[in-house]
Every structure is written in structure tokens, then in C-alpha cells.
Specification:
There is one protein chain. Helix content is 37%, strand content 9%. With 404 residues, the protein is an alpha/beta fold. Among the domains are: 207 residues, Rossmann fold, CATH 3.40.50.1110; 30 residues, no CATH class. Strands 2-1-3-6-7 form a five-stranded parallel β-sheet, with helices on both faces. Strands 4-5 form a two-stranded antiparallel ribbon. Strands 8-9 form a two-stranded antiparallel ribbon. Helix 5 packs across helix 9, helix 6 packs parallel to helix 7 and helix 7 packs across helix 8.
Length: 404
């Protein structure tokens, strides 16, 4: 029985040892970090000592905790900082050239001639920039009297045939500028009924209204400048503008007015609407607004440039920016000096190329030059067809030949 117990006990121990060995072999071998491996070697217990004890006990030193990840991050950050090229200081932008100061508008003369600008919202912009064009001309004043939503169709809203005579009586204009029609593409009400746009009855009535408004100006013997409509971005608006411009041109010419054609200034070479184009100085600029109808400041100035040329022709010297009013207050003092008794003898013109330099006092051309004493060979040949005698001894000396 003791033998069996011993054998049984040994079997249990053997199985336990096999299990422990298996577990130990299955455990992964973890190598110590580099800093730990560099420490002093410490003797470790073997498997039997761990199971049954015995021998000197050693305590595995607790591995030091090394904060590796943050240190590596700091090292990478430092390396990036060293490798990073020093940021160049932003070069200061060159200062934009200062625009020349705008000259102050000159004081207008009391008898300055006035330009009256009437019409819709397009006429309003035209009047503003036309005033800029003549701000240095003391003899010209621009009066802008537009109504943005007006036209020749809605006379119930604003009646230009009634308002224009009153404006002319008030301003006493030397020139009247009309730009109207952008709001007129709508139904027209007449005493006979409503007229739909577009239609022949509508256009016939519109022609009468254009001619009637133009006649109010020309019958007063005032120059009339009727400005045509520009191109528009909308194809339908553009088509109608061409039709209306034809009416303006024809009807205004019938009563003695002038039609100012601005169409080519706001289209390209193919006749298409443009937003950007050449301004009045030939530089590229945005001329039209984003709605394809209104003008920018550069566009209004170009529009006014067309009208300015016509206006200066009518105004003449009054439109000159150098005009100065001369009267007794600004004339220089003139002194009448008596003749001096010691006045110098009048100098007579003498040729600077006089070869004699003898101080002669004869006027140039006072006496014909004396005839030459001996005629030249040229004079003999030209006048009488004779040649001078040949020099003696020359082969053409025929007298010598005859004597021999």
C-alpha cells in the first residue's frame, strides 16, 4: 500500500510538473526594454525553486517605468522644428500708388449756360457723370431732373409732356438731353383703350409721344440731344431696344433734334452685350451691373462721354475749362508812356550773310543788283545760244587751225 501511495504521489507530482512545464513553455518570452537590459544582471530562480522552494530567495527588481512614448513625441517634434525652414517674413506689399487728388470743382459763372438732363433711371446716371465732365468748366452747369420709374407710357404716373415745359421755364437751359424708354415695354393706356406691347398700334402711338416730347424742346429753339438706349443682357430687351432706337432716331430728326447713338460703346465686335469693355480712356473696365441693365460708374462716365462731345459743339467756348471772365476788375494796369527824345533810330533789316560787313543801311531788295560786267558762259548759251571762244591751243580752237 505504501508503495502504491508513493507511486500514486509521484504520478500526481509528475502530472503537475508536466502541466507547469507546458504552461511555462507556452508563455511568451518578453525581452526587457533597452534601458532595463543595461542594468545589473539579477539571478533568477529556476522552476524547481519556484515550485518547491529552497535555495536563496531573490526578488525580481521591479522594472522601472519608462515614459517612452511622450519622449519620442518630443524628439519628433524637436526634429521637425529643426528641419523646418525658418518662416520667411512676409514681404510687405508695395503700397498702391496714391490716386491723384481730385481737383475741387471750379466756381461757376453767373451767366453759365445750363444743360438740362431729363428721363428715367438711365438719365439719372447720365446726368451725374455729365456733371463730372463739366465740373472744371466755369461756364457750364448740368441740371439733372430725372425720374427713375418714369417713361412715355405711364403718363398717369409721371407726365413728361406736362413736366418738361415747367422744368425748362425754371432752368432756362441752353441744351436739353433726353434719355428715356427703358421702362416703356408695357401696356399703354389711351383714351381709345389699352394697347398691348408689342404691336403696331402700340408703336404708332409711341411715335406720336416721342415726337410730341421732342417738339416741346425744339419749338423753343433749344438744341435737343436724344440719347438712345444701350444694349441689354436679356435678348428680348435687346431686341426691343433696337426697335425703340429706330423710332427715336426717326422722330427726333423730323423736328430738328439730334440722336446720340451709344450702341457701339456697349457691345463687342459681333454686336453682343458686354459687361466689361473699354472705358472712355481705352482701358478695360466693368461697364455694366450684374443685372445686365444698369451701368457702373465707369459705364456712366463712358455714356456721358458720348453726350459730352455733342454738348461741347453746341456750347463752344463756354465749355472750355480755361475760360476766364475778363472785365475791368482783373485787367492789368496799362501805362501810356510819352515818346523818349533819346529813342533809338529804327533798325533796318540787313542780311546776316552780308559779306562786306560794312554797316550798309540799304534795305534788302531796295535796288536791283548791278549787271555783271562779263557774261558767263551759261548766260551766253541760255540767252543767245552762243559758246564762248575756245582757249588758245585747245583742239576746238578753230581760229588756230584756220591760220595754220
Amino acid at each position: 500500500m505504501k508503495v502504491l501511495q508513493v507511486l500514486g504521489g509521484r504520478g500526481i507530482v509528475s502530472r503537475f510538473l508536466a502541466i507547469v512545464v507546458t504552461v511555462a513553455l507556452a508563455m511568451p518570452v518578453v525581452s526587457a526594454p533597452a534601458p532595463v537590459q543595461a542594468q545589473e544582471r539579477v539571478q533568477r530562480r529556476n522552476l524547481l525553486e519556484m515550485l518547491f522552494g529552497g535555495g536563496r530567495r531573490y526578488i525580481d527588481p521591479e522594472p522601472s517605468v519608462i515614459d517612452v512614448a511622450p519622449r519620442r513625441q518630443r524628439q519628433r517634434q524637436q526634429q521637425r522644428t529643426r528641419n523646418r525652414a525658418p518662416a520667411r517674413a512676409a514681404a510687405p506689399r508695395p503700397a498702391a500708388p496714391a490716386a491723384p487728388p481730385k481737383p475741387e470743382p471750379v466756381a461757376k459763372l453767373d451767366d453759365a449756360r445750363r444743360i438740362l438732363v431729363v428721363g428715367d433711371f438711365l438719365a439719372g446716371g447720365l446726368g451725374d457723370e455729365l456733371g463730372t465732365a463739366f465740373e472744371q468748366s466755369p461756364g457750364v452747369v448740368v441740371e439733372e431732373k430725372s425720374n427713375g420709374s418714369s417713361g412715355l407710357v405711364r403718363q398717369d404716373y409721371y407726365n413728361w409732356p406736362v413736366q418738361l415745359p415747367a422744368l425748362m421755364d425754371e432752368t432756362k437751359p441752353a441744351i436739353v438731353v433726353v434719355m428715356i424708354g427703358a421702362n416703356d415695354r408695357q401696356q399703354m393706356k389711351t383714351p381709345a383703350g389699352s394697347l398691348e406691347f408689342p404691336g403696331d398700334p402700340w408703336f404708332k402711338e409711341y411715335e406720336k409721344r416721342v415726337q410730341g416730347l421732342a417738339t416741346l424742346v425744339t419749338q423753343r429753339k433749344i438744341p435737343l440731344l436724344w440719347v438712345g438706349l444701350p444694349s441689354f443682357q436679356s435678348p428680348s430687351l435687346m431686341r426691343d431696344a433696337v426697335k425703340l432706337n429706330g423710332i427715336y432716331r426717326t422722330e427726333v430728326a423730323k423736328v430738328g433734334g439730334e440722336f446720340v447713338d451709344i450702341w457701339d460703346g456697349f457691345v463687342d465686335e459681333e454686336g453682343k452685350f458686354i459687361v466689361t469693355g473699354s472705358d472712355m480712356n481705352g482701358q478695360q473696365a466693368r461697364l455694366r451691373g450684374s443685372d445686365g441693365i444698369n451701368f457702373t460708374t465707369a459705364g456712366k462716365r463712358k455714356l456721358a462721354f458720348y453726350v459730352e462731345k455733342f454738348a461741347r459743339r453746341h456750347l463752344g467756348e463756354m465749355a472750355s475749362p480755361e475760360l476766364v471772365k475778363l472785365d475791368d476788375s482783373n485787367l492789368p494796369d496799362l501805362q501810356a508812356l510819352p515818346p523818349s527824345p533819346t529813342a533809338a533810330v529804327p533798325v533796318q533789316p540787313i542780311s546776316l550773310m552780308d559779306p562786306d560787313l560794312d554797316g550798309g543801311n540799304e534795305l534788302l531788295g531796295a535796288a536791283p543788283p548791278p549787271p555783271p560786267l562779263v557774261e558767263s558762259a551759261r548766260d551766253m548759251l541760255v540767252k543767245r545760244g552762243e559758246l564762248p571762244p575756245a582757249p588758245k591751243g585747245r583742239i576746238d580752237d578753230y581760229q588756230r587751225s584756220s591760220t595754220q
